Amino acid sequence: MDINNNIKIAKRTAVVAGTFCLFISLLLLLNFIQMKSADPLESEVLETLVQRLSMEPGNEQLKEEIRQFDLMARKAYFTSLWQVRTGGYLLLFAAVILVTSLRIYHSLISKIEKPEQDEEPDDFTARTLARRWILSGTAILIFLALLAAFTLTDPIEAYIASVEDTEEPESEVERIEITDAETRTEEPEEEEVVVVEEIAEHTTPEPVAEEPEVPSFPGESTIKENHNALRGPFGKGIVYHNDLPTEWNGESGQNILWKVPVPLHAFSSPVIWDNKLFITGADENQRKVFCFDRHTGDLLWEATADNIAGSPDTPPRTTPDTGLGAPSSTTDGNAVYSIFGTGDIIALDMEGNRIWAKNLGVPDNHYGHSSSLISHEEKLFVQYDDLNRGRIVCLNVLTGEIIWDITRDSGISWASPILAGVNGNYQLIVKGNPIVAGYDIETGRELWTVSAMAGEVGPSPAFGGGLVYAANEYAAMVAVNPVSGEVVWEDNYYLPEVSSPVYGNGYLFIATTYAVVACMDAETGEHHWEFDTEDIFYSSPVVAGNLLFVTDISGNTYIFETDSEPNLIAKNILGEQVYTTPAFAAGRIYIRGEENLYCIGN
Amino acid sequence: MERKKTKSRREFLVSSVRFGMVLALGGVGGLALKSATKDQWVWQIDPFKCSWCGRCATHCVLNPSAVKCVHAYELCGYCDLCGGYLIPGHSDRSTAAENQLCPTAAIERKFIEEPYYEYKINEDLCIGCAKCAEGCSAFGNGSLHLQIMHHICVNCNECAIARVCPSDAIIRVRGSEPYLMKGDFTADGE
Amino acid sequence: MKLIPLITVILLIYTAALPEDVLAQQRFPAPEFESGYELPDVVTPEPRALANEYADVFLLASFLLFTSWLVIKKRSRKWILWLSVFALLYFGFIRNGCICSVGSLQNMTLSLSDPVYAVSYTVIAFFMLPLIFSLAYGRVFCASACPLGVIQDLVIIRPAKVPLWVQKSLGMFPFVYLALAILYAATGTDFIICRYDPFVGIFRMGAEFHLVILGISFLLIGMFVGRPYCRFVCPYGALLKVTSLFSKRHLSITPAQCIKCRLCEDSCPFGAIEKPTPDKLVSKIKQRSGRFMLYAAVIPLLMLAFGLAFSSSHIFLARAHPDVYLAHLLINEPEVMQDTENLDVQTFLGSDRTMEELVDSAASIQATFRTGTWLAGAFIGLVAGLFIISQYIVRRRTVFEPNRGDCYSCGRCMEYCPVEK
After folding, report:
1. Where are the domains of chain B?
2. Structural domain of residue C214, as residue ranges?
3. Which residue from A54, A62, A84 is facing B63, i.e. has the nearest CB?
4. Of B25, B71, B79, the CB nearest to C131
5. pLDDT at residue C2 above 70?
6. For chain A, how are helix, strand and coil distributed in percent, rounded to 5?
7. SS in 3 state form for A435-448?
8. Which of A1-5, A97-101, C277-281, C288-292 reaches the highest mean pLDDT?
9. Number of domains in chain C
């Protein structure tokens, strides 16, 4: 009787506790679904309200609405937290009661049960069954493992293989092109004739008939339409565009056609071919080339200079004011060539596909390698002076093969080479410490040399009016005749430290690191004027028609007339720091700031 | 007699296997002891790796998360215009709800003296969403940052947040130095 | 771009040695207060004291010792029950489950495979103590010190009898799980035992939704099938099973001589009581001793087959590692790089890790997995083989006694035995 009563009590308690458990579980589930579907703290309504407020900041009613809503959302969140916690404890408590009462109930009724008779399969059958099931279990396991193996191929292996593939054909190309280079050097005279013709007639040369697969190289007039290297065509700092904008403001957006963030920082300057604008970026971990549509600012492609044989695992130490991406690229319309502080040099076609890449040896340079590239037809010139030796390398643009490689009587430098047309031929004008020299582009032979520089050589040479100009802080300004190698005049009053001099309409312009723009007579060296600006110059001045554009590091661009008087046309604010030299195209100026790339135009 | 023999043989076998197992256990234990430490391990966030993804608020086994924002006062610029407190594009610099970045209003803004304001975290309200830490790092000194609070953390053997942390910022640290507070970091750096 | 006077350069090089972020984030100087304001202290509550950890180890050891005494000498089911309730409350609900012996096997594995990871003394003790006790007195840990086991033990209401063959074949899964857990722990991928622990969420009153559901399901099933997790899942139980098979002493159903009254026959909810061997079975098995030899000879083949099958699926298994997963994702679906919602991808792209570093890391992890899966596969093959040949081993047993491998020393059967000391 007593037992039956107890059984009843236990049963009832179990039912009540079970129902309660179920009820609480349902509530918790509901709460969970509610929180999942609409988290009060991530409410979209609130977000839209706040967004609306930013459009109409004075709307007091809206503010009040937000406050109410915010309060509600927080209340909802904390209430739900409380519910979950309380619910959890209640559920646990009820579950304990349920289990206890069920246990008591069953222990009470099971007293009555009799031990069962043996009805199950005998032990031997059980063992046989067990064996079978273990065997089928193992079969299933093996099947699952194999299934997993066959449904999944290893993408890593394929990826590594594909990376190696892209390197593989390169060596094949090299092998083919070696013969090209050889046949070429056998016919040097014909080459020179072509060069002279180009300069004389300003026409695009016909592609060489015997070698149809070799891309044609642009002629001088095509190059002049573009901005194919640091400081424009031939690296001289002279561009051939009119109707350039003379007024803009980066802060108000006046005449800023587009502005995009620079994807990866570096001190290299933009170069332009047709509709494409190229910049490089670099840090400790990656070296990249970016191609933008220069009309829209869209990033067309980016390419990484990686997996290059000989490239150091850890890049050489550079200082933050130079970095690994200081040299600017150059392009000939067939490909864009870029070099980085690691000594990696890479050629990419206009679609961003790698043509070749190699490492020229890690430069021993305490700031970081920063001499930019320049090319002429199939030759790509690399000024590669470092602490060990002065060196100039000429590479075949198609293959990356070395055409000539000279050691010269110079120490480390950070200047960039330029191309000067002298007597119908091009000379490669290269500064160094302490020499300024002209080189035969075909052989690398030193044509003339003047020992006039000193210190840390940063500014590049200038060329115009038949003279080569080279200047350096703590040294001198020299004007050299590139035919005879004679110094025509010398001066040491205005000297640049980083920014390169430029020739324009009979004048020579210098921008210094003590915030002065100076003008002198290009023929005689006579001082015409000086102009005090707000900040110092790293960016190099560029001459376009009768205008001189020069940008200080605060991003202010001063536009002067190329005249014997300091005729400031405009001073334009960009609103961010500029260390690079702008690139020019018809009616457009492109400036790479520290953070953004700007397109300026009317 | 026969049975006794098999039994003693079995006994011998069992005890030799047991002896082997004792040896094996001893070996494993000894190997582990070789690199063992007295210290316990606890989880902590390296604030310099943290990328403020917000998963600390959602992936902790506890609700609300054991991750809270802490304020390294010695790093703070005490700015009036605080990127960690005010939403971007706020209508004015006040404590009004429409200007606050914190979804639970866990940051208390207090005027100290012209032009400085103190920002204090109410840990009871903080849910570890990292919104303020992100704002502070983007516009300010980064003095607001996330830490795992050890009086709340249950020190799971496998931290549920560490598994999903995209920047691998949650690491095991020794229990004797359980916090990676930012202020201490800079002091060490110099 | 160079030519800042030398001093600046030296300064810059010096400052470059500092963490970059420190510099980057010091945008505003610390103010100089005039009102005498003092910087408030930042509250950093200490973690659980080390003394408490040692107290846990001490408590565990005393629990094991006490249970052993209860099981072997005192033979009291009631005491064991109350002790286990206390263990559940303390190790489960108060201490919130971590670290437990079951999970500690992964920490041990990691410390052996990763020279950087130093395991703490507490963890070693938690791993070793139950195994040592099991070698001496059987699985006393399962009886009353393991919160996971106890919570299932307490919810048993009306255990159904699981057919022997089901029990035997499912009994292999813990070894598979053990192999996988060790594989994942040794490669530093994951602690899967902890990650898929169904009960720890109940102890700390909070877990992911699917784990709560899993835990509740295990408990509901546990009402009718005794200790489902312990019997068919627990990888640490697999270790304990092996050590307990060779234990020095063990719980016995009867305190003296078994009278074969069969009262205890169905008392075990876990099917761990071995009946006296029928003569028929012995003779039948003896007839098939050739099969035993055959299967024994097949074991190396099984190991090879499993090794091959598992190692061929190593890429699938390695995907549990975040690096491998991310590398696969980025290679297979490069378009995710544009997905601004994908935090993992975006964080990776924003970090200073290159694709090459990621791929290298993934490749080396996969290589480790290739070796690991070979070993794990061979181990599983060995276990499967041993399970099969054990079906051909028969011991002439004349009394009712617990199966030393499967018995959790809970002491239920002792209550049924009418024999007195």
Report:
1. 1-36, 41-189
2. 54-252+263-275+403-416
3. A84
4. B25
5. no
6. 30, 30, 40
7. EEEEEECCCCCEEE
8. A97-101
9. 2
